[in-house]
Amino acid sequence: MISLCFDYGHGKSDPGALYKGRKEKDDVLKLGIAVAKEVRQHGINVDETRATDKSMSLSERSSFERKGNYDYFISFHRNAFKPEKANGVETFTFTKQTPKAKSLATRIQKNLVGVGFVDRGVKRANFHVLRETRSPAVLIEVGFIDNTKDNGIFDSKFNEIVKAITKAILDEVGIKYAASSSKPTASSNSKETFYRVMAGSYKERSNAEAQMEKLKRAGFESTIMIYNR
């Protein structure tokens, strides 16, 4: 099975880039989780350095990746410069670029440009998460958070962005993309029996989120259901 490590930049007390109340940490968490969901539906394992709003140092992120055996590492970010002075998407690999990292970065960049972002190209950088991880690694800067046009694309074409990144990953590993609506689902008249598993009940939401993160890392879809006794 293909196995990926997704990394969502910043978190908790580190908001990343900010603009008019918008936080990079929130945008990339939302985007990354959506892409992970799509990719998993195609039979690929995805582990996440964080699946909630929590703090993680750069070394914790790279250590997480190094404990696994991944085919690719993908870090999600949004760019920033001077308000309204720069825009577009760019995808990074480590300075000592591997063929696999270059190939994936090129596919992602091309697909995101196709959504409507200005093409800033595939670049090389000595970023920690590109240098200290073992698997072929890419870092995506999905538009500038301090640019109104890029934010408009991010919001209005969010589903297209998710699809663009998902298709790039699937193309790279040789899996055909299947839209969610075309994936097999149980008919309302189906007589098949399904069994739902509950992994626990918690008084504190933080404990529930921690359990959900463990399940996701193990490759299981999970959700939090709220009820009152």
UniProtKB/TrEMBL annotation:
Q: Which Gene Ontology terms of cellular component type are present?
A: outer membrane-bounded periplasmic space
Q: Which GO terms describe its molecular function?
A: N-acetylmuramoyl-L-alanine amidase activity; peptidoglycan binding
Q: Which domain of life is it from?
A: Bacteria
Q: Which Pfam families match?
A: Amidase_3, SPOR
- Its GO biological process terms? peptidoglycan catabolic process
Presence of keyword Kinase: no
Q: Would I find Zinc-finger among this entry's keywords?
A: no
Q: Which SUPFAM superfamilies match?
A: Sporulation related repeat (SSF110997), Zn-dependent exopeptidases (SSF53187)
Keywords per UniProt: Hydrolase
Uppermost EC category? hydrolase
Q: Identify the residues that the record assigns to the MurNAc-LAA domain, covering every copy.
A: 62-170
Q: What is its EC number?
A: 3.5.1.28
Identify the Gene3D superfamilies for this entry: Sporulation related repeat, Zn-dependent exopeptidases
| Protein name, entry field | Sporulation-specific N-acetylmuramoyl-L-alanine amidase
What is the organism field in this record? Tissierella creatinophila DSM 6911
